């Protein structure tokens, strides 16, 4: 038995076309097969949502559905038919409701939808934390009619179809069958003079300014939840939540790896060979580091406490200064002469890495030649 289309979309029976379309887009995006590959349940739900929208987006089909409770062309649909909007689950639900004093209602309290807000923050704000304001558009209770949907000075009147019960009951043999009133959507009341502000929808779309605190140590993909800052709940239900999804902007100098910060520091050939003291940037300002004589490319100098703080826990990462030795791209004739002289004067211990490499080459390939 297919679910009630309005319940599936999470909207009232008097929902506007725009509200139905918005609900359809949200569900279609959530359950689309491309987003849920191999998930049969999501695929079935997507088909169900699409079929429901085909009916509710067409005024004639929707009117038929509101009257009979089933889509046009459905077996058993139409006046007098046993399937006029009722399935076995509905029948037995109403039977037990009659026996035990229960009953179904179309105006149950439901929680509001959750909202998502994408927020970009700087590399520095992610490291140190910050507080910022965001503007969030959302549906809120209409301030003029206070959520009644009726014009100021008027009130909703009792539904003339269900006489305020919110349900239509009919007798099928010894079965007492009830279904939600299609006229009032289970409310039991009708709005004859709608509020000019919300047009009887009981809510209006407003933009709220919210203050949000971002803790130090966040990274791209982290989400901050603001409880109760989502969409308005229906029939007194609680509001949804707001989820703020963070994206940390790239830094022109630093890169992040876990809680550590990577910084490539260029040094000259002479500085790497003779040693030097140079100034490097950090998130808290410039600091000096010592380059030892004979420093090789890729050597890492660690600056403790200069990284990102742990978001859940204590301690702070390090800044890793990775040495990049620059090779001159243009040389004067004098510089070339001096470097050639340097090469002639070089001994085995001048280039220990190269010597070790070529010794291993001779060892490996020399053994093969002997064989």
**Poorly predicted regions:** 75-106
Strand content: 25-35%
The major beta sheet can be summarized as: 4 strands, mixed
* Strand neighbour order, sheet with most strands: 10-11-15-14
Mean pLDDT: 82
Choose one word for the global shape.
elongated
Amino- and carboxy-terminal Cα gap: 80 Å
Output the radius of gyration: 36 Å
Overview of the structural elements:
- The chain is of the alpha+beta class and 371 residues long.
- Among the domains are: 1-85, Orthogonal Bundle (Helix Hairpins); 255-326, Sandwich (HSP40/DNAj peptide-binding domain); 340-370.
- Helices cover 28% and strands 27% of the residues.
- It has a 4-stranded mixed β-sheet. A 3-stranded mixed β-sheet has the order 1-9-8.
- The longest helix has 19 residues, at 352-370.
- The N and C termini lie far apart (80 Å).
- Residues 75-106 have low confidence and may be disordered.
List keywords for this structure.
15 strands, alpha+beta, 9 helices, Helix Hairpins, three-stranded mixed beta sheet, 371 residues, 27% strand, single chain, HSP40/DNAj peptide-binding domain
Blueprint (SSEs and pairs):
Blueprint: H1 5-9, H2 17-31, H3 40-56, H4 59-68, H5 88-100, E1 115-121, H6 123-128, E2 130-141, E3 157-158, E4 167-172, E5 175-180, E6 189-190, E7 203-214, E8 223-226, E9 242-248, E10 255-257, E11 260-268, H7 269-274, E12 276-280, E13 287-291, E14 300-309, E15 316-326, H8 333-345, H9 352-370
Parallel strand pairs: 1-9, 11-15
Antiparallel strand pairs: 2-7, 3-6, 4-5, 8-9, 10-11, 12-13, 14-15
Helix pairs in contact: 2-3
């Amino acid at each position: 038995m297919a679910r009630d289309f309005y319940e599936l979309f999470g909207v009232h029976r008097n929902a506007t076309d725009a509200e139905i379309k918005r609900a359809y887009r949200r569900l279609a995006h959530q359950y689309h097969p491309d987003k849920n590959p191999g998930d049969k349940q999501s695929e079935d739900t997507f088909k169900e949502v699409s079929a429901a929208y085909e009916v509710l987006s067409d005024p004639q089909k929707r009117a038929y559905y509101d009257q009979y409770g089933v889509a046009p062309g459905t077996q058993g649909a139409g006046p007098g038919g046993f399937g006029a909007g009722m399935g076995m689950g509905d029948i037995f639900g109403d039977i037990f409701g009659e026996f035990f004093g229960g009953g179904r209602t179309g105006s149950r309290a439901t929680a509001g939808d959750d909202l998502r807000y994408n927020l970009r923050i700087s590399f520095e704000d992610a490291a140190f934390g910050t507080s910022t304001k965001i503007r969030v558009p959302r549906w809120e209770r209409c301030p003029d009619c206070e959520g009644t949907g009726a014009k100021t000075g008027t009130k909703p009147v009792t539904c003339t179809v269900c006489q305020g019960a919110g349900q239509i009951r009919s007798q099928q043999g010894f079965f007492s069958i009830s279904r939600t009133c299609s006229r009032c959507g289970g409310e039991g009341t009708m709005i004859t003079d709608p509020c000019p502000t919300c047009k009887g929808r009981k809510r209006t779309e407003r933009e709220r300014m919210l203050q949000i605190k971002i803790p130090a140590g966040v990274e791209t993909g982290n989400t901050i939840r603001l409880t109760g800052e989502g969409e308005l709940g229906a029939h007194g239900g609680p509001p949804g939540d707001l989820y703020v999804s963070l994206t940390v902007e790239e830094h022109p100098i630093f890169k992040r790896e876990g809680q550590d910060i990577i910084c490539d520091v260029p040094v000259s050939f002479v500085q790497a060979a003779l040693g030097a003291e140079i100034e490097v940037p950090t998130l808290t300002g410039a600091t000096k580091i010592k380059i030892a004589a004979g420093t090789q490319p890729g050597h890492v100098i660690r600056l403790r406490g200069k990284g990102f703080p742990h978001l859940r826990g204590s301690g702070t990462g390090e800044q890793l200064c990775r040495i990049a030795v620059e090779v001159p791209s243009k040389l004067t004739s004098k510089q070339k002469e001096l470097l050639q002289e340097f090469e002639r004067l070089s001994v085995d211990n001048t280039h220990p890495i190269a010597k070790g490499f070529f010794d291993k080459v001779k060892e490996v390939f020399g053994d093969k030649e002997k064989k």
